[in-house]
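Sample intake sheet
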Amino acid sequence: MSNSVTQEFVTFRVGDQWLGVPVSIVQEVLLAQRLAVVPLSPPEVAGFLNLRGQIVTAVDVRTRLDMDGEPSVGTAMNVVVRHDDELFSLLVDEVGDVLAVEAGSVEPVPATLDACWRSVSSGIIRRERDLVVVLDSGALLRVEAKA
């Protein structure tokens, strides 16, 4: 019997990039939802969604990470995460599997990674065919209005 500690991450894709967040913060995963647009909000705030009477801020991960391509707000899947006792929806293109890895296999964020990505990432997981960037949800959700 092994004493290794495993960490689990919910994986999802935005464009061609796979990303992940710890399973422990994920409340649920939803198909596309109708969003209420919020006037004068930062560009990465796609709007609010009503989740069983609770207002949830929807963050367009593509816009937040400064990725090319059209935001897929109308067809985006929602990864609902809890941060500081508040719910947020991460709008993503596709939700993957739960990835269980040994704690030691999450590598540090490479210094060569784009500064925007580096500021919201906590590690990298190598898979057979690709990499999963582990997001720091607190940093990702720190959305500030541009002056």
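Comment: The beta strands are 6-14, 17-22, 26-30, 45-51, 54-60, 77-83, 86-92, 94-102, 121-126, 131-135. The longest strand covers residues 6-14.
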